[in-house]
Amino acid sequence: MSELIELDARRLLCPMPVIRTQDRIRTLNTGDRLVVHCTDPGVLHDIPAWCRINGHDVLETRTEGRDITITIEVR
Hints:
Blueprint: E1 4-9, H1 16-25, E2 33-38, H2 43-54, E3 57-64, E4 67-73
Parallel strand pairs: 1-2
Antiparallel strand pairs: 2-4, 3-4
Helix pairs in contact: 1-2
């Protein structure tokens, strides 16, 4: 059964949101979903690029004001 996990990376600057995402995904299983909450606009490029390189799927990206939410499915 897959899990939905949330990661709070708000107020962190590049490269920390990507590093925290990478570290958290290492602990997850295939099919799990990670919801990353960020405020650094650089993650809109950096996290999807990291996911492409590492074979994970970005399911959704939402921006509301300064808050950015990226949902990733672990592959």
